[in-house]
Amino acid sequence: MISSLSEIGFAMPGMSGAIPINYQEIEAWSRLTHTYLPWYEPALLRKLSREYCAELQESKKVSRKKPSDDSDIDEKAAADSFRNVLNFYKD
Known about the structure:
mainly alpha; two-stranded antiparallel sheet; 58% helix
């Protein structure tokens, strides 16, 4: 999914910055590259593009808190949480 969005483009240029890709762009890319998209994928690609544009705008704010350093992450706890999620879907 991300590779498709990367090929299409995460966003399009707009008058005041990046704007989300539209369905016409997704459909044109799909047709020109002979890429079959399941019925749900164009909506997801558009949502990802909207989220990208929103995050891009937020990142430009001076008051925006910088991302935290990943060194304080408890890797064992994260692995256990991930395992629990997988076990939930296993049954």
